[in-house]
Write a structure and sequence with these properties.
The complex is a heterodimer of chains A (about 550) and B (about 675). Chain A is globular and about 70 Å long. Chain A has helices at about 5-20, 30-45, 50-55, 85-105, 115-135, 140-145, 150-160, 165-195, 205-210, 215-235, 240-250, 250-275, 280, 285-305, 310-335, 335-365, 380, 385-395, 405-420, 420-425, 430-445, 460-480, 485-500, 525-530, 540-550; strands at about 65, 85. The two termini of chain A are about 15 Å apart. Chain A has about 550 residues and is an all-alpha fold. With about 675 residues, chain B is mainly α. Chain B is about 70% helix and about 5% strand. Chain B has a two-stranded antiparallel ribbon. The radius of gyration of chain B is 31 Å and the shape is globular. The chains are: A mainly alpha (about 550), B mainly alpha (about 675). At the A-B interface, helix 8, helix 14, helix 16, helix 19 and helix 20 of A face strand 1, helix 5, helix 6, helix 7 and helix 25 of B.
Chain lengths: ~550, ~675
């Protein structure tokens, strides 16, 4: 029972919690908090058994843990309740359940108004996000995609800061614009599928077969219809200006989820749809150059702008633009290292930036300001907090043996194989990351306590330490032993690269003209490659899906 | 040999003190802080003994512990690599490191955050040992970045001072600029060789002929040099090191003199297989090293802060090591690295002892006549001063002599390198003896004020230092050990020309010769007959230059103490340029820092972000609202207005049909 419906159980645990909270009287705030935390923790707990289960089947091709048969939901239009995951969505789901729990735990004191609604919306948001990563049906995907927009809008609009309405509406309009374009794209694919096969269906594995057949202007328009939707979500330069406002106004937990998970829907969409649906467009040199250029601008631009921020949360928000630039760069270099690195960097960004928002939130809760100039010498009064901050800053700036380095290095390595110029432009982002984070650290944590209001600040409570502990553990684990992550990503990424650029040989190494004849060194080159990196079946994906289902 | 214990023992110490040090007694912190690096030192010695038993075929001894990072076709392992070169480095790092740890027990005794200091010091040892023992470039990069972090934390140790925090940040960021080069070099390795393992990289490089023009290896070499310039404080990235003196003195001794800053030299020596085949890159290395040696030495002659003099001296001496690498005399460079670790650590610790005795005073203008008050410090520092000046038979003589000789006589040598090197040696002797005379001779010019120290660290202690006092034994014994090493440590490299047998060079020879056989051209670092004057003649000249420098310092700062002021009057422009360090910091601020900051704030953020993008969005939103407003007015509920609109619409339709008819 559990094994057959593990995805549904993970998906709906938070929603059940939201439903139960409906029946708790709203005056009973502590009961609401306890219940919400229990369900958030339960949401994390039910996702833990998925780890060994997934590990056992990680090398099988196609989507795994499938639920539902196609078109079973609204048969008349061909929409189905179909769930399934591969390595990419698996990692993002774990990130979501972890950050969901941490966010809810961190809200305990921060939220005092309308507590019941807050937790209900938060739990619904959780289900919406998980659904996006699990859906194998375009219709279902879109439902979750839109459904999660509303709770986020309300979280910012109700529990946000002084300019919350402006920020919430900006967020909503931006994202809605993207959604509308994407909806048009989805409908086009849907009708195109019918034209080709005579079947109306939203099933993603089916669309994978027909969508790449679209060529010419239609394909380019479709690509950009999806791309703009995802690029706004990521957000890529120049669609990013909703992000700083949304982050600054959102409550801490909202920022954590927004940065940690919501932005990943954009990158996830690029990987899951943009590349395999329109490989011809995505691999077109001009399109690729365009997207890569936007990514690199995002990396440098985000870092430079965040250097100048006076508000800590805005600084972290702009740093997200920079980090996500690495993620989109990795996706569009389209090779094993680039995409695997990108997914790992998405996870890393969730861990590090999620933690950075929590860090800002802790000061905000105590002082109700995020102005950098209000602080100074915090490490004297809050040593534990300062140490944790240092670790997460280092993780965010990509210090080796912490998680950020693994993602950035792998992305840059993959980028370098495609183009030295791209890589050379992206690397300064690493330098600038050190600059804005260390400067922030210097101004807030080092030095004497200059502001008397900061003299009596309380160091972290056990509950607050508990919110950081799993993030630090994850940062260290990924940094020191990233191998399992790469193993999980090996199969889906190889399959994706194979789909998108089937005719291109893998980049050959040791091509230097002088390297070949002299010694046995050149003979050793092929032996160096890990065994069977791109052993994808030549059959299209649905066949493989069926194979897994029959087990 | 369980080499992993060597880096991980200090790591354990760092973790224990970092997590529980707050609750420990001071004795317990000291015990943990010393025991773990001490154990690492002993384990290194044990490994050295075992290493001596290994047959030549079993060298390098490699230990692999498992995979770390790999995507696509590339995988980096956790693995350690022991050959003569890394063994030498490990011995220096653990040995000098342990001595400095012992010294710190005395020096830091009254400072706040004692446990934190030892935790960071042990952390530094972990990263430094990872750097030198790594068996691939990526793991080396871990150490490379990690020592930068430890340095950042230790410079910022006095984090009550803004200047310390700023210096720590500057060091880290400048180093990251160097890392840019290092990283790109790594990507080139991966792209062209598919691996970062030393063994496989060097094997593949061995298949390349020497590059007559700039090719792949030259590119890699130059990129590695960029990294080395950051870490080893070479032109133009040296600017962080003088500021790094904000850190506690033992930190300056350990990190900014003896070990971390030599990492760049080690990295070039380790990558010699690449440089041997890229003569253009080698020449650039030599020029950078040579220029740095001279440039920093000139600045060192006018600094007043005792630690800053030593900082510029370090930069200059690192220049010598880089110069040696640049003429493919790697073992000469490593030799100087070894002796420099002894005498420069001693100089810094001695300076620390001076500063300690004066309650925190660092300005040499307020010192003088200290030799009676602190004889132990005086005598040990005297040994170090003679050693760095290159006076026979102290250690610095042998290593500097070796470098100067090779810089002319080597296959890649040039008399110009030698000439600049000798002139820098003259300057070195001059500024070091200037320091010596100013500190220890003449009359005492300052007021020993206990509150100075208190002011410096922001803490109330050292109340007992009303009089100038000699340092405690925990500080003196390390000084004496280092003095012995500074004196005699050079004898292992006694050159054949002076009747010695140069054990040092023969010890390292297998490392640097291993790959030469396969190179297409003979690239022996050894001298080529007839190209340069004899070794004895060069030695005598260099020693003469050093003696001249000493004599000048004696004249100006002992015999005729009015001379400096007169000279300063006479050459005001030149003096000002030197005193302001050629205005390099100001130029960098104007060229790089300001444009980045102002540009980001005023153009990127205010104009593009807030103006162009958000402006457009908000304008669009407002336009949409205005249009909607206009349409809203049409629904006024007034029948007559609706009739009017119908009339307008009707007229429009008619007009359209007429227009169609006309067409």
């Amino acid at each position: 029972m559990f094994n057959d419906h593990v995805l549904s159980i993970i998906l709906f645990t938070p929603m059940v919690g939201a439903f139960i909270l409906l029946f708790v009287p709203k005056e009973n705030k502590n009961a609401i908090r306890w219940l919400a935390n229990m369900f958030a923790l339960a949401g994390l707990a039910v996702s833990i058994p998925l780890i060994p289960m997934f590990w056992a089947v990680k090398d099988q091709p196609g989507f795994k843990f499938l639920e539902g048969v196609p078109n079973n939901w609204i048969p008349s239009i061909g929409a189905g309740y179909n769930l399934g995951i591969d390595g990419i969505s698996f990692l993002l789901i774990l990130l979501t359940t972890l950050l969901g729990w941490i966010s809810i735990l961190s809200s305990w004191n921060a939220i005092q108004e309308r507590v019941k609604e807050y937790y209900i919306w938060f739990l619904l948001l959780q289900t919406g996000m998980l659904g996006v990563f699990m859906a194998l049906d375009m219709f279902l995907f879109f439902v979750f995609w839109e459904a999660m927009l509303v709770p986020m809008y309300l979280l910012i609009g109700i529990w946000g800061g002084p300019r919350k309405l402006y920020a919430a509406i900006k967020f909503f309009l931006y994202t809605l614009l993207g959604s509308v374009l994407m909806l048009l794209g989805i409908l086009f694919l849907y009708f195109h599928h019918h034209t080709v096969t005579g079947v109306y269906t939203f099933a993603i594995p089916e669309l994978y077969k027909t969508a790449p057949q679209i060529t010419g202007t239609a394909a380019i328009l479709l690509f950009f219809a999806f791309f703009i939707g995802f690029a706004i979500k990521v957000p890529m330069f120049p669609f990013h200006t909703w992000l700083p406002d949304a982050h600054v106004e959102a409550p801490t937990a909202g920022s954590v989820i927004l940065a940690g998970v919501l932005l990943k829907m954009g990158t996830y969409g690029l990987i899951r749809f943009s590349l395999p649906f329109f490989p011809g467009v995505a691999m077109h040199p001009k399109v690729r150059l365009f997207v890569v250029t936007l990514s690199i601008i995002g990396i440098i631009y985000g870092a430079l702008v965040s250097l100048m921020q006076k508000d800590m949360k805005k600084l972290v928000a702009y740093s997200s633009v920079s980090h996500l630039g690495f993620c989109t760069l990795g996706i569009f270099v389209v090779n094993q290292a680039g995409i695997a690195g990108s997914v790992i960097q998405q996870i890393n960004h969730g861990i590090s930036t999620g933690a950075l928002f929590l860090i800002v939130g802790i000061l905000y809760e105590r002082r109700h300001t995020r102005e950098i100039s209000e602080y100074g010498g915090i490490s004297n009064v809050m040593p534990v907090y300062a140490t944790i901050t240092m670790i997460m800053f280092l993780s965010s700036m990509g210090l080796p043996l912490l998680n950020g380095f693994i993602g950035e290095f792998t992305i840059l390595q993959g980028t370098f194989i495609e183009s030295k110029v791209w890589a050379a432009w992206a690397v300064p982002g690493v330098v600038l990351a050190a600059a804005y984070l260390l400067w922030l650290y210097q101004r807030v944590y080092f030095g004497p306590v200059t502001n008397p209001k900061n003299e009596k600040l309380q160091d972290l409570t056990p509950r607050e330490i508990l919110t950081f502990a799993p993030l630090i553990a994850a940062a260290l684990f990924i940094g020191i032993y990233p191998k399992p992550m790469f193993q999980i990503l090996q199969q889906p990424v190889a399959q994706l690269v194979q789909t998108v650029r089937p005719n291109e040989a893998k980049p050959v190494m040791a091509t230097h003209p002088l390297a070949t004849p002299v010694t046995a060194a050149s003979a050793a080159v092929p032996a160096n490659k890990p065994a069977a990196p791109a052993k994808t079946s030549s059959k299209p994906r649905p066949a493989a899906v069926a194979a897994v289902r029959s087990n | 040999m369980n080499l992993w214990l060597i880096p991980l023992l200090p790591m354990a110490g760092a973790i224990i003190n970092g997590l529980f040090g707050r609750r420990f007694s001071k004795t317990a912190v000291t015990a943990v802080g010393l025991a773990f690096p001490g154990a690492a030192m002993l384990w290194t010695w044990k490994a050295a003994l075992q290493f001596a038993q290994l047959p030549a075929s079993a060298i390098p001894h490699i230990e692999n512990y498992g995979p770390w990072l790999g995507a696509g076709d590339f995988l980096a392992n956790y693995g350690l690599y022991l050959d003569q070169l890394s063994l030498l480095m490990a011995l220096i790092v653990t040995g000098v490191g342990f001595i400095i740890h012992v010294y710190s027990v005395g020096y830091m005794a009254h400072e706040g955050g004692y446990y934190r200091f030892f935790s960071y010091m042990n952390l530094f040892m972990f990263f430094m040992l990872t750097l030198v023992l790594a068996n691939n470039y990526l793991l080396m990069f871990v150490g490379w970045e990690g020592v930068g972090l430890a340095s950042y934390l230790l410079i910022g140790f006095f984090f009550l001072r803004d200047s310390a925090a700023a210096a720590g940040k500057k060091a880290f960021i400048v180093n990251r600029i160097g890392d840019f080069g290092f990283l790109i070099a790594l990507f080139l390795f991966i792209k062209h060789f598919g691996t970062l393992d030393f063994t496989s990289v060097f094997e593949k490089v061995a298949g390349f002929p020497q590059e007559a023009t700039a090719g792949l290896l030259t590119t890699i070499g130059l990129l590695l040099l960029v990294g080395a310039c950051g870490k080893s404080a070479q032109l133009p990235l040296y600017v962080w090191l003088p500021d790094a003196m904000e850190g506690p003195t033992p930190v300056s001794a350990l990190i900014h003199a003896a070990t971390m800053v030599t990492a760049g030299v080690y990295m070039i020596a380790r990558s010699h297989a690449i440089f041997d085949r890229a003569p253009i890159a080698l020449t650039v290395v030599a020029i950078i090293g040579c220029a740095t040696a001279l440039f920093a030495a000139t600045i060192g002659t006018v600094q007043h802060d005792i630690k800053r003099v030593l900082a510029y001296s370090t930069i200059s001496q690192l220049g010598y090591m880089v110069l040696a690498c640049g003429v493919a005399a790697y073992s000469a460079g490593m030799f100087h690295l070894l002796t420099h670790a002894f005498f420069k650590a001693l100089l810094f610790l001695g300076a620390g002892s001076v500063i300690h005795s004066l309650g925190g005073e660092q300005d040499m203008r307020k010192m003088g006549g200290l030799r009676q008050h602190i004889p132990g410090t005086f005598w040990t520092m005297t040994v170090a001063t003679f050693a760095i000046a290159g006076i026979f038979p102290l250690s610095g003589f042998f290593s500097k002599d070796e470098i100067l000789y090779r810089s002319w006589a080597s296959h890649y040598g040039w008399w110009g390198f030698w000439a600049v090197g000798v002139f820098s040696a003259f300057l070195t002797a001059f500024y070091m003896f200037r320091l010596w005379f100013l500190t220890f001779f003449g009359e005492f010019r300052g007021v020993p004020a206990p509150e100075q120290h208190a002011k410096r660290t922001g803490q109330e202690h050292h109340a007992e230092s009303h009089h100038i006092h000699e340092s405690p034994r925990a500080m003196l014994i390390p000084l004496i050990v280092l003095a012995v090493l500074s004196f005699a440590g050079g004898w292992i490299g006694w050159p054949q020309a002076l009747g010695g047998s140069n054990h040092f060079e023969r010890f390292l020879a297998p490392v640097f010769e291993a790959h030469e056989a396969s190179a297409h051209e003979a690239v022996a670092a050894g001298p080529v007959e007839g190209q340069a004057p004899s070794e004895i003649a060069l030695t005598v000249t260099a020693t003469g230059a050093a003696l001249l420098g000493i004599a000048l310092a004696w004249l100006m700062y002992y015999k005729r103490r009015d001379l400096p002021a007169k000279l300063r009057e006479r050459f005001q422009g030149a003096y000002a340029a030197l005193e302001h360090k050629y205005y390099v910091d100001e130029i960098y601020a104007w060229l790089f820092v300001k444009p980045v900051i102002e540009g980001s704030r005023n153009i990127l953020w205010r104009v593009i972000d807030a103006g162009a993008i958000d402006g457009t969005i908000n304008e669009t939103a407002e336009a949409a609202r205005d249009v909607s407003n206009a349409f809203r007015r049409m629904q006024s509920g007034n029948i007559r207005s609706y009739a009017g609109w119908i009339a307008v619409g009707g007229a429009a339709v008619v007009a359209y049909m007429v227009w169609l008819g006309v067409k």
